[in-house]
Structure formats: structure tokens, C-alpha cells
Specification:
This protein is an alpha/beta fold. 32% of the residues lie in helices and 16% in strands. The protein folds into two domains: 176 residues, Periplasmic binding protein-like II (D-Maltodextrin-Binding Protein, domain 2, 3-Layer(aba) Sandwich); 125 residues, Periplasmic binding protein-like II (D-Maltodextrin-Binding Protein, domain 2, 3-Layer(aba) Sandwich), CATH 3.40.190. Helix 2 packs across helix 12 and helix 13 packs antiparallel against helix 14.
Length: 380
């Protein structure tokens, strides 16, 4: 197999439209030869996909929902999707709750995992067939890195961009803002006393580990020598800070906002301030499942596409927050979830901002891989 993505899967100086991307990826999926983390083959025949809803158009399934032609019927109709309790699981949850998976012939079940490692293992052993996942995890799994069993995985869909942050405990309010250089004297003092400060991220090959390391290093703090780095599942971040087990953490929402609401921390900086529109979570499959069931994967992508369009209609964000706040999903008050979904950032230390780079699920070519990044701000 070729080691290059199909040309239609990469952004260049002539970006693809979302429909062209979906058509190209669906064609490759239909042939069972779409982009994998090991490589892929070229596909030359584009096949049509569902028409994108018009702005504001309801996405409640049509009366024919669940009726799929024999030629397009998924090979496997019963699918279990894994999620972690984070706001960016929303495309999977909305596709399930709004009947969009059903519309394309998928009987979906959503299962909340306890940790990223548990999600990875569940996908590897077939307990779930698709999952919400950190973008670095399928790469690590495919290569057998950092404790991952060597299991090739594919990433045909990027779920979201933006919406993560670095939280520091409340005692640093007024002493440290967005610049990690202000944190270094405290780190040096703790290290000299033999009690290094502790910072947490969610999984070693994940984006939060990269953000946390980058943030510390940009302030002259060596992430391996000057502090202790811990791996903590996202929903447990706030509880661990409450009992003083960490000085800071990097995680997705709503747990940064929850730390502020609980009065135990504040947001130092958001990840989109470091890299606007950075890639974040993906929908992953094992390569074996995807190659055996290309029509199933195609059906999943169609449903996720419609859910993503719905999610980026800002009028729908209150309903989104209401749905995903449920105990079966994020288990966090909807009011805490909603503010940052709308770009309303109270950083918890007196700073506020209306962020245009809030979490997105569809806009600005969110859902396909891009060859070039657009970093306009780098910490110094």
C-alpha cells in the first residue's frame, strides 16, 4: 500500500470543500482502502454523500430514516461507540441522540469509558467498534508506543478543533497569568525543597501531554527534570486538584471551567491561544474493522457530518449543552459546559474574553486532515 494519503484528503493552497472531502473519503472507504496510519491507496472515483443541510435547517431524520438501500447498507448495523466525558464527544452523542446514526442504518450504543487507556483497549479487543479518541493515540497504537498494544488503527474523521486549556490551582491567582515564565520561581523553589510541583495531562501520546510540556518548556521549566508529570483521566482532574494532588493540569472542557466554578483553579491559557484551530479529537476504528466494513464506516461518517453541521449552528449550542450534560455522558451542569461552547471565557482570575476560536466541529474545514497548520501565536 502507498505511504501517501490520497491527494483529496490533504489541504493545500487550494482547499477542498467539505463535500469534496466527504465524497473522496467515502470513495476510498467504499473501496476499503482509505487513509490508515500505516498508509493507503489512491482512489479515483468519488461517490456522492448526503446533502449538507442549509443553515438553520433541522436535522431530525426524515420519515425514511433507518431505511437504507441494499447497495449502501452497512455490513454491520449494531455499533458501540466509546466516549470520554468531555465536551468534544458531542458529535458522537448528537448523532446518536438525534437519530442520525439510525438514519444511515446504524443501531448505535454509546459507552462512556473510565480513561483513555480503557477506551484504547476496548477498541483494540472489539468491545467497541468506533471511538472518540485523542489524535495521537491511534498513531501510538499503530506503532506500539508508550505501552500501547500494537494494533493498526485508522482516523477517517476529525471530530473537533480548539477547546482545551491549562488550569493552575487558585493560589497562583494574581501571580501567574498566561505567561509560564511567572511560574518558574515557584517551580524552582519547590524543586529546591525536594517537593517538585505536579502537573497532569490525560495520556502520554495525547495532545494534552504536548500542550503541558510546551507550556512548561516555554517558561524555562524542564517537564521531565523540574516537575512531576502525572497521567489523570479527564473527569478526575478537578477532584485531584481539590485534594491538593496537583498544581496544574491540561485537559479538555468542561473540566477547566468546572475548576473555576468549584473555586479551586483558574485558566492560565487556552490551547487555541497557542495554536488557533488546532486538531483535537478524532473518530477512530481499527484498520481491520474498517477494511472489512467500508460501508459501515461510510454510514458513520455521514451521520457525524450531519451532527457536526448541527453543532456549529450557534443557536443549537444550548441544546447541545443540555444533551451532553447528562450523567450518561459528561455528568456536569449544562451551564458550566455552555459558556465556553459560546466562546465566553471567564478565566477565573479577573480576565475575560469573547474567543472567536471556540471549539468547532464543522466550520473552517474542521473535519479533514490539513497539510499545513496556521499557528499565529507561539509562546515565548
Amino acid at each position: 500500500m502507498s505511504n501517501q494519503f490520497p491527494s483529496a484528503m490533504l489541504a493545500s493552497n487550494d482547499p477542498l470543500s467539505r463535500r469534496k472531502f466527504l465524497a473522496a473519503s467515502s470513495s476510498a472507504v467504499g473501496a476499503g482502502l482509505f487513509a490508515t496510519l500505516n498508509g493507503c491507496a489512491e482512489s479515483t472515483t468519488a461517490r456522492p454523500v448526503a446533502v449538507e443541510p442549509k443553515p438553520g435547517e433541522a436535522i431530525t431524520p426524515a420519515p425514511t430514516a433507518g431505511v437504507v438501500s441494499a447497495s449502501e447498507a452497512p455490513e454491520v448495523s449494531d455499533l458501540k461507540f466509546g466516549i470520554i466525558a468531555l465536551t468534544d464527544c458531542s458529535p458522537i452523542v448528537i448523532a446518536h441522540e438525534k437519530g442520525l446514526f439510525k438514519k444511515y442504518g446504524i443501531n448505535s450504543t454509546v459507552s462512556k469509558g473510565a480513561s483513555w487507556a480503557a477506551i484504547r483497549d476496548a477498541l483494540s479487543n472489539g468491545d467497541i467498534q468506533a471511538t472518540h479518541m485523542l489524535i495521537g493515540m491511534p498513531i501510538a497504537s499503530t506503532m506500539g508506543l508508550l505501552g500501547s498494544p500494537k494494533k493498526p488503527m485508522v482516523v477517517p474523521w476529525l471530530l473537533n478543533r480548539n477547546g482545551q486549556a491549562i488550569t493552575l490551582k487558585a493560589e497562583f491567582k494574581g501571580k501567574v497569568g498566561s505567561d509560564p515564565n511567572a511560574l518558574k520561581p515557584f517551580v524552582d523553589e519547590a524543586k529546591a525543597k525536594g517537593t517538585p510541583m505536579t502537573f497532569a495531562m490525560t495520556f502520554p501520546p495525547g495532545t494534552h501531554a504536548m500542550w503541558m510540556r510546551y507550556y512548561l518548556a516555554s517558561g524555562g521549566i524542564h517537564p521531565d527534570r523540574d516537575v512531576a508529570l502525572a497521567t489523570v483521566p479527564p473527569p478526575q482532574m478537578v477532584a485531584n486538584m481539590k485534594v491538593d494532588k496537583m498544581d496544574g493540569f491540561c485537559v479538555g472542557e468542561p473540566w477547566n471551567a468546572r475548576a473555576i466554578a468549584d473555586g479551586i483553579g483558574f485558566t492560565s491559557i487556552t490551547t487555541q491561544e497557542i495554536w488557533p484551530d488546532h486538531p483535537e479529537k478524532v473518530c477512530a476504528f481499527t484498520a481491520e474493522f474498517a477494511e472489512k466494513n467500508p460501508k459501515t464506516v461510510k454510514a458513520v461518517l455521514k451521520a457525524l457530518h450531519e451532527a457536526s453541521v448541527w453543532l456549529d449552528n450557534m443557536d443549537n449550542r444550548p441544546e447541545q449543552a443540555d444533551i451532553v450534560s447528562a450523567a450518561t455522558y459528561i455528568n456536569c451542569p449544562k451551564e458550566i459546559i455552555l459558556g465556553r461552547l459560546q466562546g465566553k471565557y471567564d478565566m477565573g482570575d479577573g480576565r475575560t474574553m469573547q474567543d472567536k476560536n471556540y471549539m468547532i466541529f464543522h466550520d473552517r474545514n474542521c473535519n479533514y486532515p490539513q497539510l499545513k497548520c496556521n499557528r499565529s501565536r507561539i509562546l515565548k
